[in-house]
Design goal:
The chain is an alpha/beta fold. It contains 4 helices and 6 strands, in the order βαβαβαβαββ.
Length: 139
């Protein structure tokens, strides 16, 4: 499931999605900063709790708070551009842990941060998951 706030991007991507992806167009209400339409879209789906939730777009602080409600106990929230959207306040008083990944983004001279937030024993960090072997194609 994905929630898209940009109508042009939604229209462009919708015909390209596979059958197992449900995309919802939910415009952002900057005046009320409400995510009630996003909540309705999530609640209308079959899946009630998610393994991974990715936050990117507008109202990121509010979206982060909402994500905790829909996260599986061993799931993870990935916060894109976590360096400046009020994420810290949304995670500070929760019993969660955070791993920050800093680096440069294409076309930008400042470093950015993507954060991995998890509450319990995140399945992504389990030691019994093997590290995949990536093979380069032979020419």
């Amino acid at each position: 499931m994905t929630i898209e706030e940009n109508e042009d991007w939604y229209s462009e991507m919708l015909p390209k999605l596979s059958d197992n992806v449900k995309m919802h167009f939910v415009p952002v209400d900057h005046n009320t900063r409400s995510l009630s339409s996003a909540r309705e879209a999530i609640d209308s789906g079959k899946i009630k709790k998610f393994d991974i939730i990715i936050i990117d777009g507008h109202l990121r602080k509010e979206a982060t708070a909402l994500a905790f409600e829909y996260l599986k106990p061993d799931g993870a929230i990935i916060l894109d551009n976590a360096e400046g959207y009020g994420f810290y306040e949304e995670t500070f008083n929760r019993e969660c842990r955070r791993i920050d990944f800093f680096g440069f983004a294409p076309g930008v001279s400042l470093r950015h941060c993507t954060s991995l937030i998890f509450v319990g024993d995140c399945f992504l960090l389990r030691p019994d998951i093997p590290i995949p072997v990536l093979e380069l194609p032979t020419q």
